[in-house]
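> forwarded from #structure-qc
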C-alpha cells in the first residue's frame, strides 16, 4: 500500500513537471510542420542527457528542428558545417597570442553552446570527429593547458546524408555507439508537405518565443530518475539487447549468420533511459513495454554489425531489429 502511495505521489509530481512539454510542442509547431517523431526524439535526447544522430536527405528540416527547439527553450545554439578541411580547433577553439597583453588568449569554439548542430559529420576527417565525440563523452574541452566545462544542458545533433558518400569519412562503430539514438528521417506525408508549401510561399515569417527555461529542463531530468521501472521491464530490455548478441538463445538461430556483433551495454543503458523519458513525456510514473518497443529501433540500429551475408541478401539492421523485437517475449 505504501508503494502505491509513493507511486501516486511521483505520478502527481511528474504530471506537474511534464506540463511544459505540450506548451513546447505548440510553440515549435508554429514553424516545424510534421516531423513529430524527430521532435520527440530530440526532446528525449535532451531530457536523457544524450546526443542524437539524424540520417536523412537534405531539406527534411533537420537544422530547422534543432534551431526551433533551442529558440523555444531560450538556449544557446551553434552550427558547424563539417568539411574535409575542418580542423579540431575550428570546433573546440584555440589559443591566440595577444600582443597587447603579451600572453595567449583562449578563443572558445562553437562547441560551447547548449545545442550544437554538427552538420554532415561524416564529411570531416577522423581528428575532427574524435575532438567532437570526446567533448560529447567527457562534457569538457581542453584548450592548451586549460580544461573548460561545457554548458549544461549540452546536446549534439549530428546529421549525415545517406546517399552522397563521395569524400566522406564514415563514423567508426565505436564512435557511433556514443550517440544515444540514430534516427532515420523520411519524407513528410502529402498533407504536411502542403502545409509547409503554403507556409513558405505566404511570405509570413513566424517567430518562436522562449516558453521553457533551462532550469525546467534540469528539474525534469531529476524527475525522470524517479520513474518506476519494474524488474520485468528491466529483463525485457536486457532480453532484447542480448538477442542482438546471441539470437540462438531466443529461438532465432537463423539470425546468427547475419549479425557480426550485437549491441553493447551502452545500448541497454540508453534503452532504459529513453524508455523512462518516453513514459515521462506521456505523463506516466512507470514504464510499460510499449515505451521500450517504441524507442528500441532508434536506440539500437547503430549498435549492430551486419555480416557480408546479410548485405548480400539485402538485410538491414532495421529488418533484423523489428524481427527481434517481435520475437522477444513481452512481459
Amino acid at each position: 500500500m505504501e508503494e502505491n502511495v509513493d507511486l501516486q505521489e511521483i505520478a502527481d509530481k511528474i504530471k506537474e513537471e511534464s506540463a511544459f512539454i505540450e506548451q513546447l510542442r505548440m510553440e515549435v509547431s508554429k514553424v516545424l510542420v510534421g516531423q513529430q517523431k524527430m521532435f520527440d526524439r530530440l526532446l528525449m535526447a535532451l531530457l536523457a542527457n544524450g546526443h542524437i544522430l539524424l540520417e536523412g536527405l537534405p531539406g527534411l528540416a533537420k537544422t530547422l528542428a534543432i534551431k526551433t527547439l533551442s529558440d523555444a527553450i531560450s538556449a544557446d545554439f551553434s552550427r558547424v558545417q563539417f568539411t574535409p578541411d575542418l580542423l579540431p580547433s575550428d570546433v573546440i577553439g584555440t589559443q591566440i597570442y595577444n600582443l597587447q597583453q603579451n600572453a595567449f588568449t583562449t578563443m572558445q569554439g562553437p562547441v560551447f553552446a547548449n545545442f550544437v548542430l554538427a552538420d554532415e559529420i561524416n564529411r570531416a576527417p577522423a581528428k575532427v570527429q574524435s575532438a567532437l565525440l570526446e567533448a560529447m563523452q567527457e562534457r569538457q574541452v581542453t584548450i592548451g593547458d586549460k580544461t573548460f566545462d561545457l554548458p549544461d544542458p549540452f546536446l549534439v545533433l549530428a546529421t549525415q546524408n545517406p546517399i552522397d558518400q563521395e569524400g566522406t569519412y564514415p563514423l567508426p562503430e565505436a564512435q557511433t555507439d556514443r550517440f544515444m539514438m540514430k534516427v532515420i528521417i523520411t519524407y513528410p506525408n502529402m498533407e504536411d508537405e502542403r502545409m509547409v508549401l503554403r507556409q513558405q510561399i505566404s511570405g509570413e515569417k513566424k517567430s518562436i518565443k522562449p516558453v521553457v527555461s533551462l532550469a525546467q529542463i534540469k528539474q525534469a531530468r531529476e524527475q525522470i530518475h524517479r520513474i518506476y521501472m519494474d524488474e520485468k521491464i528491466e529483463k525485457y530490455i536486457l532480453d532484447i539487447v542480448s538477442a542482438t548478441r546471441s539470437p540462438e538463445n531466443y529461438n532465432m538461430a537463423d539470425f546468427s549468420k547475419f549479425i557480426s556483433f550485437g549491441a553493447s551495454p551502452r545500448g541497454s543503458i540508453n534503452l532504459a533511459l529513453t524508455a523512462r523519458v518516453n513514459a515521462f513525456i506521456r505523463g506516466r510514473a512507470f514504464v510499460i513495454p510499449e515505451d521500450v518497443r517504441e524507442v528500441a529501433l532508434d536506440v539500437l540500429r547503430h549498435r549492430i554489425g551486419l555480416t557480408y551475408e546479410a548485405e548480400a541478401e539485402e538485410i538491414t539492421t532495421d529488418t533484423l531489429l523489428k524481427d527481434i523485437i517481435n520475437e522477444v517475449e513481452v512481459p
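QC bot note: The chain has two domains: 34-202, 225-327. The two ends are 23 Å apart (CA to CA).
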